[in-house]
Design brief:
Elements lengths: L22 H7 L12 H14 L3 H14 L1 H9 L1 H4 L2 H22 L8 H6 L5 H8 L1 H10 L3 H17 L1
Helix pairs in contact: 2-6, 3-6, 6-10, 8-9, 8-10, 9-10
Length: 170
């Protein structure tokens, strides 16, 4: 078991963060000792979605959600913007950021703490493998939200990667 701040022997091929620590140590550094990752309940996701749906009557709500996400999650917002053509242009980017903000709220409510700033190396770390299967095993309610509320395949892929990154840093 990793302990926050302790370096453990690692394989030479294991990926490291920008500080040279293996990602397992980075994740442990941000998780209270002895606690396993928390599964976000389907009820929590439904509650967040219901609140967001109700607040959509206010035209400023989506602007605040999108602006807040861009300010707090700069690298994630840049990642989304880099896929603008696949997402359908500026409108697709804004829609993707809005969904990412809703997902971040789900993590915040489910874990009872905010999602810290996701770094580019953490986005790279979760980019490999079968992202959908990984998210299904880690946070099935979040994947259900993406599958039900997002129609554009490229947007689903981007949001799945961002949800995995949120899981990593939460």
């Amino acid at each position: 078991m990793f302990r926050p701040g302790r370096r453990q022997p690692i394989a030479a091929s294991q990926e490291r963060d920008r500080d040279g620590l293996p990602f397992a140590v980075v994740a442990a550094r941000h998780t209270p000792a002895g606690l396993a990752a928390m599964l976000i309940a389907q009820a929590t996701v439904l509650e967040v979605v219901k609140e967001a749906s109700g607040k959509m009557q206010d035209p400023n709500y989506s602007a605040v959600m999108v602006g807040g996400f861009v300010q707090t999650q700069g690298p994630a917002a840049h990642y989304i913007s880099a896929h603008a053509a696949e997402l359908g242009g500026a409108e697709g980017v804004v829609n993707t950021i809005f969904h990412a903000a809703v997902i971040a709220l789900c993590f915040q409510r489910g874990n009872r703490r905010s999602v810290r700033n996701i770094r580019f190396d953490e986005l790279d770390h979760v980019a490999s493998g079968d992202r959908e299967a990984t998210l299904r095993s880690q946070q099935p309610a979040v994947l259900d939200y993406i599958e039900i509320n997002v129609e554009v395949p490229a947007m689903k892929q981007v949001l799945t990667l961002l949800a995995l990154a949120m899981e990593l840093v939460s």
